[in-house]
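Minimal example, chain plus iron/sulfur cluster.
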Amino acid sequence: MISRKRRKTRTIRVGKLLIGGDNPVSVQSMCNTDTRDIRATLRQISELEDAGCEIVRVAVPNMDAAQKLGAVKKRMKIPLVADIHFDWRLALEAVKQGVDKIRINPGNIGDKSRVIEVVKACKSAGIPIRIGVNSGSLKSLKKITGKPKWTTGQWAEIMAKEALDEVKVLEDMNFRDIVVSLKADDIERTILANKIFAGKSDIPLHLGVTEAGTFISGAVKSAIGLGFLLKEGIGDTIRVSLTENPVMEVRTAYEILKSLVLRTYGPEIISCPVCGRAEVNIEKVVKEIEKKIFSDKNLLKKSKGKKIAVMGCAVNGPGEAKEADFGVCGGKGRGVWIEKGKQVKVLKEKDWIAEIIKKIAAM
Ligand code: SF4
């Protein structure tokens, strides 16, 4: 039985979205477009919104990008987060442009006086700050030459300490709208650092494994690392980092949350692994159905929680599809349409996808 007991945290508002407290674990992603290219960035944000992304972050590498944030923000629905590294003036400009949250990296934002300027700006704009600590850019790393000889436990302790030190700077200014992330590129340090921090603070945690890799390795790393923490009730918002189209980050994040029974998202598609009995290209059919559903927010909404079966043959298919709300079991050039375990009609193979989409749309 999966425990759904969540760690108690304060609640932070990011635009219209609430993070922490009793609010559902939210899903976020990051654009991989050049933020100065407003059209491309908005196109990707729109795709992310349709896929169910709830917060989106964009890179702000220079002043030109910072000055485009207002135009981006104006034409999107979900909260916009500005990702700031090195130059605190970019954070000030991002706040001026109306973003909903600022992410700063204490390891590279510079001295305390700069952080104070950013905090003052966020405070007067009423927006939160995420303190994003990454294992690769710790302040402590600058004090040593060569490769650190820290154990995993020491790495995690240092990461948590640097986050807590930064939190203190903000809270000393009576600024409490804070989210923290502690990310390493391996699961162990990520889990440990988050557990240490969670034991010492009520600040909501943004979870992620940084530079997790391409789709399969990144999804597996994230599922294990984030899944472990979420199962322990730690984590209030998640981002799955993938070297991939960010829409896949959103889908993976929801699959993790769905597996832990923390969120529902789209349908559950029950498809068989296919064996020599199949006379239909099930993989192609399932991928096409998924593509249609996961790129259309209405279909996503209507199919939420539904079990849809796509099985390769009528030998085992009908039995295995019994628990599905509806679906199809293949034969040669045709298939049996099943609803709630009953065989209702026979469909030509070419009509399967349209019939499934039609069924969802009519819900
Ligand atoms: S449903 Fe049929 S085709 Fe699919 S794996 Fe089972 S036996 Fe093979």
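The first strand starts at residue 11 and ends at 14. Residues 272-275, 277-278, 311-313, 315-317 surround iron/sulfur cluster (CB under 6 Å).
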